[in-house]
């Protein structure tokens, strides 16, 4: 038995050394960027087996949807010593190369990139944005190995922006110590406008593509305020450098976090408008907070990653929802929002969740787990069956923050929990479990949070907004309370001058009497719609219980449907400071806001 054990250990050791000797390098060039293609050359050396499998990831961490990046790959070939090697595709994302006795292999393939988003590759004759999981294949079972990436910019391009460290003395050549780093490091190639600034002791690079009416000097002053507000929560900034890649389009939006960089989508004309400018800063606050929350303080299921399958977790309400919540706190603490702005935005977030029928069906934990099949694949009934882990998590973060501040009489807040869990993950090198996060919150708050978790994390209890805002001396009232507001219960879609029903709310008048998503509304009581169907005078000027005749066209056939209007179930929340606020409430308010 001892000999067998020693033999297994020897084989394992030899296998490990053989794997460690494999060298991996990539060269990316652009022969036809106008047709949205990148040319990828992948070089492997130090091979010892008769074949090797190379794989393309199927998803991008931070965006919880299987995107099948292999669908954009074509022209896959492999050679050794100028001799073509036999290969076969064994899975949707796996190519097997029969190397024989060859120790080195050259792999070539093309990647098509023509989807504008922060998580997908886009290439044209002005620039290339390379989202790494959709560009770089990896050798099977070698995710821990380092690699090098050399970029050959297209004619006329002169810049590369990325979080990857550059190799000294080699133009546009970078290194990644493992594939988790490589896949967490997008690259922008072209002639982007680059400027730098210091914040929290860290050098930051802003790479702006697409132009726009941004003011670099103003951004250099304001961005550090957001960054320093975020750093203050955790007591340290874990990077020595950080890269913002910003794509300015006519109607851009969204962001995706990375370990020491982020990709932001922005509208090129939004910077001159005050609301648009603060909207951009808020996006920065959200994605920058991910530097801690998700990238280092992460749910245990999110790393090490399985790049071939879904990585399920019930904690995206913390990872994304709390990040959405904290962007508001950072905007307040950085001085861009007043306390009234801060409270107003959060009351609006609560209203949105309360007015979502799906919030009564799907819990925050379930929304997190089902992100892979529901969040990014919505249909016309999604509003009735689901709630976003972003929006529900934001509300749970708000309630938990106020609960902790109230329980500790203003001594602690959710900030203390976030920092403690971050330091735990940093010390252990592992992600947290839901139970560990709850335990930390209980330790800091000094109270049992089982009932809170049952109601708001794993359950669908109504949000007790008046109670929680009341902890901070803020009164929140529903302006619709006691009113009978006529309500049809539909959203509106417009196409080719026609107005149709986009969705039908559960248990509404439209739901009960048989209006369907997709129905073209020809008229309501003879009036032709010119805008939102729900706001037509034929609806808002009626009474609950009135019957309206809705003429629709369904599958090309017109029909009349009588609909009996019901009372709107939606809330309209308005906050105000309680004139009789106590010292205890003031302490909670001060700790909660952190100003």
How would you describe this structure to a colleague?
The protein has four domains: 22-189, Immunoglobulin-like (Sandwich); 192-273, Zincin-like; 292-478 and 590-595, Neutral Protease, domain 2, CATH 1.10.390; 486-567, Pdz3 Domain. The protein is built from 16 helices and 29 strands.
Keywords:
595 residues, alpha+beta, Immunoglobulin-like, Zincin-like, Neutral Protease, domain 2, 4 domains, 7-stranded mixed beta sheet, 5-stranded mixed beta sheet, 16 helices, 29 strands, disordered N terminus
Radius of gyration: 27 Å
Query: Which sheet architecture does the biggest sheet show?
Result: 7 strands, mixed
- What's the overall geometry? globular
CATH architecture of the largest domain: Orthogonal Bundle
Unreliable residue stretches: 1-19
Kindly report the spatial arrangement of strands forming the biggest sheet.
5-4-8-2-1-12-14
Q: Roughly what fraction of the amino acids lie in strands?
A: 25-35%
Which structural class do you get from the secondary structure elements?
alpha+beta
Helix run count: 16
Number of strands: 29
Mind sketching the topology for me?
Layout lengths: L1 H20 L1 E7 L7 E9 L5 E5 L17 E8 L2 E2 L2 E5 L2 E5 L5 E9 L9 E2 L4 E3 L7 E2 L7 E5 L7 E4 L10 E4 L2 H5 L3 E4 L2 E7 L2 E8 L6 H19 L6 E9 L5 E3 L3 E7 L6 H16 L26 H18 L5 H16 L9 H6 L12 H4 L3 H19 L6 H15 L5 H12 L4 H8 L7 H6 L3 E5 L7 E2 L2 E6 L2 E7 L4 H5 L6 E5 L12 H4 L6 E8 L2 E8 L1 E2 L5 E5 L5 H11 L2
Parallel strand pairs: 1-12, 17-18, 18-20
Antiparallel strand pairs: 1-2, 2-8, 3-7, 3-11, 4-5, 4-8, 6-7, 9-10, 10-15, 12-14, 13-15, 16-17, 19-20, 21-29, 22-28, 23-24, 25-26, 26-27
């Amino acid at each position: 038995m001892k000999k067998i054990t020693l033999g297994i250990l020897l084989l394992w050791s030899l296998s490990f050394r053989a794997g460690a000797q494999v060298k991996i390098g990539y060269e990316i060039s652009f022969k036809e960027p106008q047709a949205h293609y990148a040319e990828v050359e992948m070089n492997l050396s130090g091979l010892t087996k008769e074949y090797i499998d190379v794989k393309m990831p199927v998803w991008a961490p931070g965006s919880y949807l299987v995107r099948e990046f292999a669908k954009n790959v074509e022209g896959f070939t492999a050679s050794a010593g100028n001799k073509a090697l036999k290969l076969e595709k064994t899975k949707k994302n796996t190519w097997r190369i029969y190397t024989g006795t060859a120790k080195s292999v050259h792999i070539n393939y093309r990647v098509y990139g023509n989807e504008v988003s922060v998580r997908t590759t886009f290439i044209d004759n002005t620039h290339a944005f390379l989202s790494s999981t959709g560009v770089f294949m990896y050798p099977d079972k070698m995710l821990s190995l380092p690699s090098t990436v050399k970029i050959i910019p297209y004619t006329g391009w002169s810049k590369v922006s990325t979080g990857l460290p550059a190799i000294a003395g080699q133009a546009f050549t970078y290194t990644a110590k493992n594939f988790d780093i490589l896949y967490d490091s997008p690259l922008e190639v072209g002639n982007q406008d680059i400027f730098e600034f210091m914040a929290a002791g860290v050098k930051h690079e802003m790479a702006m593509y697409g132009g726009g009416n941004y003011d670099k000097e103003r951004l250099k002053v304001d961005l550090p305020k957001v960054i320093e507000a975020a750093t203050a929560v955790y007591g340290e900034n874990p990077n020595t450098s950080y890269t913002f890649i910003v794509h300015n389009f006519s109607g851009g939006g969204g962001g995706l976090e990375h370990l020491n960089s982020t990709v932001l989508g922005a509208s090129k004309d939004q910077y001159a408008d005050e609301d648009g400018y603060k909207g951009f800063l808020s996006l920065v606050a959200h994605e920058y907070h991910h530097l801690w929350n998700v990238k280092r303080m992460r749910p245990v299921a999110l790393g090490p990653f399985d790049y071939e399958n879904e990585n399920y977790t019930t904690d995206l309400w913390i990872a994304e929802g709390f990040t959405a919540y904290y962007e508001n706190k950072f905007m307040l603490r950085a001085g861009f929002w007043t306390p009234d702005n801060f409270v107003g935005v959060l009351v609006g977030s609560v209203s949105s969740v309360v007015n979502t029928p799906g919030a009564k069906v799907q819990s925050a934990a379930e929304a997190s787990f089902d992100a892979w099949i529901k969040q990014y694949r919505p249909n016309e009934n999604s509003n009735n069956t689901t709630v976003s882990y972003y929006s529900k998590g934001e509300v749970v973060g708000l309630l938990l923050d106020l609960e902790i501040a109230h329980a500790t009489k203003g001594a602690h807040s959710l900030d203390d929990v976030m920092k403690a869990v971050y330091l735990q993950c940093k010390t252990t090198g592992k992600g947290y479990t839901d139970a560990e996060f709850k335990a930390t919150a209980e330790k800091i708050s000094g109270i049992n949070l089982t009932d809170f978790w049952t109601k708001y994390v794993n359950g669908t209890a109504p949000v007790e907004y008046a109670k929680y805002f009341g902890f901070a001396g803020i009164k929140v009232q529903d302006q619709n309370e006691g009113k009978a507001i006529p309500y049809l219960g539909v959203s509106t879609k417009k196409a080719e001058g026609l107005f149709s029903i986009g969705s039908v709310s559960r248990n509404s008048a439209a739901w009960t009497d048989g209006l369907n998503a997709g129905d073209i509304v020809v008229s309501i009581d003879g009036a032709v719609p010119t805008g939102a169907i729900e706001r037509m005078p034929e609806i808002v000027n009626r009474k609950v219980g009135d019957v309206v005749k809705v003429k629709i066209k369904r599958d090309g056939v017109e029909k009349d449907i009588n609909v009996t209007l019901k009372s709107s179930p939606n809330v309209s929340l308005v906050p105000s400071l309680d004139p009789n606020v106590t010292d205890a409430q003031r302490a909670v308010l001060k700790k909660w806001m952190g100003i």
